[in-house]
């Protein structure tokens, strides 16, 4: 006959012939019935408030950077279409053919951009050739009308003596006057007195 085990909350009696594995099983069974109270964990982090005051003679300034100047485009375009049309018509003569061949890439791959900050000349098949200069370096501006004055060349002389020749520019007089008005030392617009020349 198997011996019995009497379990009570205060004492545990085990018969002497019990093995250790059955004793462990009995204690595990007993401990699973004992209620355990779990308490919620409390966050005991200290919160430190740091009050920083600046001296009276140094007002607090926010680290704001200067707002960049917005670039406004005055003119953005290529050579006048009349330059290409006139050169294509005259290109049937062998004498005019070199000028026609020069007008084709000028019409398709050359762009002029005049903004309130700079003058930009973009050329090349993918626009990889780019020249920029500021109005501050402009010394002089001249215009040369072409055809009947529908388009013309704008020749900009820089302070170092470099001449930038912009060919077949539409609205060339307005653009030249704008360049002079944006220059630091504005000068009088010079126009070729002999009248319009060729194409």
UniProtKB/TrEMBL annotation:
Entry protein name: YdbS-like PH domain-containing protein
Transmembrane portions of the chain: 84-104
Keyword ATP-binding annotated: no
Any Pfam family: bPH_2
Membrane as UniProt keyword: yes
Domain of life of the native organism: Eukaryota
Source organism of this protein record: Salix viminalis
InterPro entries noted in UniProt: YdbS-like_PH
Keywords, ordered alphabetically: Membrane, Transmembrane, Transmembrane helix
Record domain YdbS-like PH: where: 110-179
